[in-house]
Design a protein that fits this description.
binds zinc ion, SH3 type barrels, six-stranded mixed sheet, Lysozyme-like, elongated, 326 residues, 7 helices, N-acetylmuramoyl-L-alanine amidase family protein, alpha/beta, three-stranded antiparallel sheet, 2 domains, signal
């Protein structure tokens, strides 16, 4: 966030099905004993399982009239700062309107705003902005992630945010180095001590997400864009694979939803099918929270049980499922 003082809503990490045909998933809940070692991201899994692609970057000229180059020169940022607006209900377009109108009063401006549907760049990233204190402003591209209300929207918004970051790293011939070329406002506060904001850490945490998980996504997009020009790594597109006809079509790969519960335990086991034997194997590292709804991408029957696929390779058994096909 920049300098606006607005109340930050506490979002539940446990989200029921949202409206408008979207399906939301819940966080994977690890067993308590190994909680600290679990790094995998249900959000990144959801992005992959649902084939979510970033949208294209829209470039438009904002009203910020303070043109200054970076410390190393015009067109020479050293990295990108990740912010989060802390403004529930405000879309990227809402924020663009607000900051174009109010930056002189608020004394803040950033390069871009990102939400689930749009990436809007409003100031040439060859020049600095006012988002995170003197040193950061003179060295980094700065992007604000907008708050959203469903897991599906959050997944889409971080996909868009990661794409923007990866694209800017490549545009300025910067390496992908988490904590150096990709930094949170929280990192900036600790590095330079000129601001005390810690976004987007708290907002990410509301969705069970972290900067390191976000970095995983940025790294994936960065490598694929570098190698093939596409976030998929298949060379199919030069704009991140997103186009306006695909961005808002929802979850075309989702076939239904399952409400999971294990009346005899505190969590619902996940199964993965062994690639050699084909046998389902109960996972010991991750599980699903009881009484949570999950988007299902595929169903299959094995040994008298139906299994529902809830992420790239993770399945839940009919014993614990109440499944509804779309
Ligand atoms: Zn910030």
């Amino acid at each position: 966030m920049v300098s606006k003082k607005r109340l930050m809503a506490t979002l539940a990490t446990s989200v029921a099905l949202a409206g408008a045909g979207y399906v939301t998933v819940n966080q994977v809940v690890p067993q308590v004993s190994i909680q600290q070692t679990v790094k995998a991201s249900a959000i990144n899994d959801y992005i992959a399982a649902n084939n979510i692609k970033p949208v294209s970057i829209q470039n438009e000229e904002g009203t910020f009239s303070q043109w200054f180059g970076y410390a190393n020169g015009v067109g020479k940022p050293i990295g990108i700062v990740i912010h989060e607006t802390a403004t529930p209900g405000a879309s990227a377009r809402n924020e663009v309107t607000y900051f174009n109108r109010e930056w002189q009063n608020a004394q803040t401006y950033v390069h871009a705003f990102v939400d689930a549907n749009e990436i809007i760049n409003i100031h040439n990233t060859d020049y600095g902005v006012w988002g995170a204190g003197h040193t950061a402003n003179n060295n980094y591209v700065q992007v604000e992630l907008c708050e959203v209300n469903t897991t599906d929207e959050f997944a889409r918004s971080v996909s868009n945010d990661a794409y923007y970051v990866a694209s800017k790293l490549i545009q300025y011939n910067l390496p992908f180095t988490p904590g150096v070329t990709v930094v949170s406002h929280d990192d900036i506060s600790k590095m330079y001590g000129e601001t005390n904001h810690n976004d987007p850490v708290g907002y990410f945490a509301n969705w069970g997400y972290s900067m390191s998980q976000f970095d995983e996504l940025v790294g994936q997009y960065y490598n694929n864009l570098k190698n093939s020009g596409s976030v998929d790594g298949d060379g199919s597109s030069t704009n991140g694979g997103g186009d306006d006809t695909n961005n808002n079509t929802g979850n075309s790969d989702v076939v239904g939803v399952t409400q999971v519960n294990n009346p005899n335990g505190s969590y619902v086991p996940i199964y993965m099918f062994n690639e050699d034997t084909g046998l389902p194997e109960k996972q010991t590292v991750r599980a699903l929270a009881n009484n949570t709804p999950w988007a299902v991408a595929e169903t299959k029957t094995f040994d008298g049980h139906v299994y529902y696929r809830v992420s790239v390779k993770e399945w839940v058994m009919d014993t614990y499922s109440q499944y509804s096909a779309f």
